Amino acid sequence: MKYKISLLTLIIFTFLAACTEIKDIHIEMDLPLKVQNDNEFIITVKLKNLADKSQELVSIDIGDDYLKGIAIIKTEPSYNNSIHIPIDNSVSYSFEKDVASGDSIVVRFYCKTILVGDFSDEIDFCINSDYNFLTKMARTIVE
To answer: pLDDT grade, residue 23 (50/70/90)?
Structure first.
């Protein structure tokens, strides 16, 4: 009985083993701290590939707590697909864009405030797979 491994333990171990450290990616994110309710604003993300090889921006995943007060209207470039991921409490916007060595990609999220409040959560930038990501925090106060 001591050596019985639960399915959940196995799943967690498999997930952690699949994750690798992301190297040679630099991310800058610009968004306003305060916005009036029922107004639009832009979240600008610049991802620079510092590696000697091409890397892929697979998706950008925005936490549910941030999206409680902020609606994503569109993105530039346009995302391929979006899906809610309940296990991660986020919405994943799939881009699947290659970023050549030394190049950058700029992604703009066009947003609209929908509720008054203080909204914050993680934004994950999935690089080369859904399981390898860098995380930034987003916070917007809607007045």
So the answer is: confident
